[in-house]
Design a protein that fits this description.
CATH architecture of chain A: Orthogonal Bundle
Number of helices of chain A: 5
CATH superfamily of chain A: lambda repressor-like DNA-binding domains
Oligomer: homodimer
CATH topology of chain A: 434 Repressor (Amino-terminal Domain)
Strand order of the largest sheet of chain A: 1-2
Shape of chain A: globular
Radius of gyration of chain A: 11 Å
Largest sheet of chain A: 2 strands, antiparallel
CATH class of chain A: Mainly Alpha
DNA sequence: ATAAAATGTAAAACACTCTTGACATTTGTG
DNA sequence: CACAAATGTCAAGAGTGTTTTACATTTTAT
């Protein structure tokens, strides 16, 4: 699919005062996965995206925005 | 990740009176992809999930629900 | 200025998503 | 019933997402 997506994970994470490792632990993924997503190396799976949105008390569409 | 997810794509598609092929064409994916998702062979990518939700005028969380 | 904590990078292995093409089954209508 | 339309299945291959391990850089606090 390969479409650019803005994501606001770092922003929401800092608002929640969590470290990358905390997010990784809570969602049971590796810290690398969180880093890669924050730095736009790739998009998360749908499942992980939903969990991230839930963790930050927001919606998937709020957290990830399709370009243009 | 491999978590079961209920998805309501078939339901929303029928409400919209679209064929699988219509959905595939509009979102520029193959018909197989739509079939596989409707029949829970696998979950769509985040990008495709967002596009599906938009097509059906709903939210990702409404369309895809994590089990339990 | 130093040490510790947090964040970032890289690469290999593996699992998951998507496509293509060809064919089978089910559903709907005359 | 018969034919067409819609839906489903299978398999191979390309591309994407995640993990692990090990190490490098940046940030924070003392």
């Amino acid at each position: 699919m390969v479409i650019k997506m803005n994501n606001r994970i770092k922003e929401f994470r800092k608002k929640s005062d969590l470290r990358q490792e905390d997010v990784a632990n809570q969602l049971k993924v590796s810290r690398q996965t969180i880093i890669a997503i924050e730095n736009n190396k790739y998009n998360p799976s749908l499942e992980l995206a939903i969990k991230l949105a839930k963790l930050f008390n927001t919606d998937v569409e709020e957290l990830f925005q399709l370009e243009e």
